[in-house]
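Backbone shape codes
____________________
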Amino acid sequence: MKTMHIAPVALLACAGAACAQSGVTLYGVVDTNIEYATNLPGATPGSSGNRVAMQSGGLSGSRWGLRGVEDLGGGLSALFVLESGFASDTGQSQQGGRLFGRQAYVGLKSSTIGQFTFGRQYTTLFQLLANFEPMAYSTQYEPAAVQTGVNFRSDNTAMYTGNFGPVTAQAHWSFGTGAPSANPAGGGNGEVPGQARRDSGYGAGVAYSAGPLGATLAYDQYNPSTPLGGGAFSSGTVRKAALAGSYLMGDVLKIMGGYRWGQNKNANGSVALRDDYYWAGVNYQATNALMLSLEYSYQKIKTINSAPSTQANPWQVAFIADYTLSKRTDLYLSTAYARNAGLAMDQATVDLNATGYGLGAGKTSMLGAAVGIRHKF
């Protein structure tokens, strides 16, 4: 995205030669659309209906942020990112009203060793799959929470990223993810004396990119807490592992897809959910201004609450036509059809998934279409 630079002295206190080598960037995205969606829950219990509404974040979550880098010499630099999400249709803060709910971290980067960052960050699994998503994690209809988990943004996270030629290696540890807990009393905060495992998370993975080929392999684990009474908690486990690949044909067509294995266990060790998730799709640069994207997603639900699943397996087809007006502004059409779940596979499983597209009573499918504008600054 294009960014606007602000003089560092206006935002940072600095002195001497280090100030001259520092830089801070203000950046952001404003994305708003008009959407038509079918078979949503109605105003009265047991009913359903269609809706026309203004929505924020069709292709990208609306946001503004600051990022900065300071050259410390000897191939070492300091860096930070503060990124705030907001709803462009109402102006309200998102991510639970956090000021910098999308990202908030600081770190050091070495030209030889790699980068170490500390704060609220995306998990390794989420980051390494980003280049293998046909819809590029488009906010409105991408089943990101089903694919990568509700902990895809995690608080209190230490992360390492190293680039070694065509290979990128990444790993993270969260002392308390801050993700939605199985019980609101758990808070998802972690970092409780004597309960080191409570709401913790970690992951690792590698990615390869050379010429037209790309591939990645990543693992993620999240340990959500549940109350035992008397102020005590016990932790379950949510494990996910994914393998994905891509192939670029010339400069106009990119084919990609992947598989994600998942297993959620309760604190007592019983299996709450065992599922497999598959996706495949393409990006096609039809003209210099027009990009077309198509994605198919399928979730095979194998076990629910330690018993073989009898639930119909959710699937979704999504399509995006994105027309560029300039380097900073584009118009888009985004559509999706989901079966056995709401859009973005909402409420398809016992996963905590609050995307706002739960099916209305007695409905088994949902169609959504949105026309919007996105501006980057």
About this structure: The longest strand covers residues 22-41. Helices lie at 16-20, 124-129, 144-148. Residues 285 and 291 are 5 Å apart (CA to CA).
